[in-house]
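Bench notes, bay 3.
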Amino acid sequence: MSTERGSTAWFHCFAGTAGDMTMASLVHAGADPVAVAAILAGLPVHDYALSFEPAMRCGLSATKAVVAVFDEHGHPHHEAPATDAGHDGHDHPHNGDHDGDHDGDHDHGHDGEHDHHHAGHDHGHDHDGDHDGGHGHGAHRPYRVVRDIIEQADLPARVAARAQRTFRMLAEVEGAMHGVPADEVELHEVGSLDAIIDVVGTCAALEVLGVDRIVCSPITVGQGTVRAAHGDIPNPSPAVVELLARAGAPSRGIADRKELATPTGVALMVALADEFGPMPAMHVHRVGYGAGTADIAGRPNVVQVVIGVETPPSLTPQPGQPAQLLEVNVDDATGEVIAHTITALLAAGAHDAWASPIVMKKGRPAHTVHALCDPARANEIGAVLLRETGSLGMRGSTVQRWPQRREEAVVHVHGHPIRVKLAPGRAKPEHDDAVAAAAALGLPLREVLAHAAQLAGGLEPD
């Protein structure tokens, strides 16, 4: 197993995503398939074989993952006739079996020989590419059974935790859609054996590569409808849309009627990604491509993964944002007037405003009132500064600023909402919200601030 810890994996889902494509991209990036299979051997399940084969998608070399599931007679299951979906067909958590529109192998075309890694019972079959589908149809399982399978498995702790998080999210989404508790959800295709292998195999490959942090691009989805056993359903599917909504994950639609993003593939991203966005600044060590089934003209039907070590952001990146610094010296303004001036400047749109104590001629105590603003608003902010302080003059200079990444979240202290600004290594509760909560609760302000900061600690961005 890899000892290359501290790695970040960025998944580029420009053509969509599916569970088997994600696992295959990591193997193509260098995850040892034997090591992946060794981790999967810890699952208390049998009667399947996992293999990886070379593939070409729109002229791009990739890897295809194939899971064969065997029946009680030792024969591999073959999937239903393919539809127009672009990815593989074992993924929909909808009630009923879909006619090939699952997260698995729509229109599987095998390119080259299989690199087999058998798991479970060895049936003695030679699976050398003569079957017409990588994913066989396994029986569906209730979510609680899938959860128990992973709990009983002999898996690395992080592999188990990531897999549980993925299936829990699928169950919660399906439960919300059908109005039943998550533990009572029947996971049809995503509870089948091949889907379990896709999810746990992806988590195993991440572990083999030592991936600690995951970032995902916006996820591409198709349009129109896709055929299911009970009729047409929207494309993207309801489960995919709900998963994206719950995570606030970005997506983009393209004019393609194939099912480009499947529930299992999307669940892996929204459950495991630490953030969504462009590829972070990193020293790239590996890249891989996981192939979907169809070879689509004009667009490689692959998931791309880029793995490396992120470059720490500079405290002073170049170039900075231009800003205008405006200042006045006042020796005849009270503290109340200065405080009001700072409030007025911020309300007018200044980036920041503050006061510094100074000593003027003849030893007179005074203050400099500063305002930092966008150059385009210098006249407006300057007018407020002069009006509120009564100063007879003002000076200014052009500076640069480097604002650091920050987010805002809301925590609840004994039922009272408090906004919190989050930055790497810091959580700062909003003072006014904390004051209101302290007054309503009859608690000291410092206790409310400390409680809010503690609640926000687990929300800090990486």
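Next record in the batch:
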Amino acid sequence: MKKVITAIIVTMLLAIPAVALNTGVPRQSGDGLAQGARTLEVSFNYQRQQGPGSNQYAVWIENEKGEVVKTLFVTSFTTKGRVRGNEQPMRGYIKRPACVPTWVKAAKANDLTDQQLDAVTGATPQASGTQTFTWDFTDQQGKAVQKGTYKVFVEATLFNASTITYSGTFSTQTKAGNVALTSQLTEPDEKHKDMLTDVKATLQ
């Protein structure tokens, strides 16, 4: 009889750690339910426009102070311009001030070296299609940013002075999901309005 009682007591004691572990606190798993998102994906449908004065866009992230944390992409003409014949090299946003002016001002492009601009510049797509960019919560130097609130921007020069800017605020601690975006258009342009459509920002 004593042996039976002893066995029951031992069994109960062994069960205590298992019960203690069940505290009701969600585990830090990779399902996104107990932790914030790890990346922000920005995408849109790009329709290449005919002629000069269009097809320029930029994608970037700002912190709560309105400082550019990282430029994910800016089209090459904006930063490098285009040299023809005996022309002197000139940055595109200087030659055409309508080239993504919001990004130029926010990024303080005039203070950046050619090398710094090269690091965020990409060729303007020659064909229409979906463009996708991913922010991994790092700054321009590749260092992880502090947890907090940030704002994503997508700006496009539709044609000359007609630009449209999409923006949305989010937190790095927010769970996976879509970021609500608003848009601001400087001047209507029916002919080039479809240059950028279906703009999305998604925390993943």
